[in-house]
Design a protein that fits this description.
Transp_IS110-like_N, 14 helices, Nucleotidyltransferase, domain 5, Transpos_IS110, 5-stranded mixed β-sheet, Transposase_20, coiled coil, alpha/beta, IS110 family transposase, two-stranded antiparallel sheet, globular, about 55% helix
């Protein structure tokens, strides 16, 4: 069986395989159970295997690469145009097999297990932060029903909660006091979870030289730097800094026709988490620079004079993404000119 290219449609239990030879003729079309997938590919000659970048894709990519196959991952939206007719497992596997053989297809780098583990810590921390915000808002809303209004912000809530519970004249019933105590304890547990996960991220940051280089960029701290290093991997897989910014969804969408370029808002493609961290970091830089009079002639100050803060924040995030590519792709230090770095 002379198989040159295989399209593998991933699933939870049953996987669909579509293989073709060097002439594009179908030579393999079958369903394989999860327990038999590794053994099936171990009995096949080394070939090009295409998969969509979805759940468990990086795990199977590492698994099949260890068996001698060349594995390439693609974004699902790039595979969709190759689906013929209705969506089925067989049609999806055939479309993946067709898409992976296209010379201009864009591929997703395969992540290492360590990268996935660090990103899992980031996702868990983000989940705890979201739950903490929801718990604080619920506490504030419940107390407002009894006429106790607490200003927005976790610091204000933590400061005012003990005083609310100690005040016996605020009209809170005993059942409500017990509920507020329970919710406050839950809020402290969430705070502890966030702090412990941030310690893990800080430890990884101190042991990673690329992450420390990225943290020198204004608007990028240890949280953003570690997330960028773990998500990007090898920055040389991007041709330039603009490709990295486009991968993060920080470049304008285009609706150009007839030789007339029309630029819209940012594309918002790629990783929402990374884009959010970069934009929040840019907002922090803008808040800092607005209070500095000695940087009146800086690029960001001039941008703020003609654009609003949101547009300026996205522009700075885009600029920082390009700087990130330069530092990672060329092993440079932030603020050091290229001749001195060489």
């Amino acid at each position: 069986m002379n198989i040159r290219t295989i399209g593998l449609d991933l699933a939870k239990n049953v996987f669909q395989i579509h293989g073709v030879d060097e002439h594009g003729k179908v030579v393999l079309r079958k369903q394989v159970a999860r327990s038999s997938l590794a053994a099936c590919f171990a009995n096949l000659p080394p070939c090009l295997v295409g998969m969509e970048a979805c759940g468990s894709a990086h795990f199977w990519a590492r698994k099949l690469a260890a068996l001698g196959h060349e594995v390439k991952l693609m974004a699902p939206q790039f595979v969709k145009p190759y689906v013929k007719g209705s969506t089925t497992d067989a049609a999806d596997a055939e479309a993946i097999c067709e898409a992976v053989s296209r010379p201009n297809m864009r591929f997703v780098p395969v992540k290492l297990a360590e990268q996935q583990a660090l990103l899992a810590v980031h996702r868990a921390r983000a989940g705890f932060v979201k739950a903490r915000t929801a718990q604080a808002n619920q506490l504030r809303g419940l107390l407002a029903e009894f006429g106790i209004v607490i200003p927005v912000g976790l610091a204000s809530l933590r400061q005012r909660l003990p005083m609310v519970l100690e005040d016996s004249n605020n009209g809170l019933p005993g059942m409500m006091r017990e509920l507020v105590t329970r919710l406050a304890d839950h809020l402290r547990v969430l705070d502890q979870q966030v702090a412990e996960l941030e310690k893990q991220i800080q430890l990884w940051h101190r042991q990673s030289e690329p992450s420390q280089r990225l943290a020198a960029i204004p608007g990028i701290g240890p949280i953003t730097a570690t997330a960028l290093v773990a998500s990007i991997g090898d920055a040389r897989s991007f041709a330039n800094g603009r490709q990295l910014a486009a991968w993060l969804g920080l470049v304008p969408r285009q609706h150009s026709s007839g030789g007339k370029p029309v630029l819209l808002g940012i594309s918002k493609r790629g990783d929402v988490y990374l884009r959010t961290l970069l934009i929040h970091g840019a907002r922090a830089v803008i808040s800092h620079i607005e209070r500095r009079c000695d940087q009146a002639e800086s690029w960001l100050k001039r941008l703020l004079s003609r654009r609003n803060r949101n547009i300026s924040a996205v522009a700075l995030a885009n600029k920082n993404a390009r700087i990130v590519w330069v530092l990672l792709a060329h092993d440079r230090q932030y603020g050091v000119p290229a001749p001195l770095a060489a």
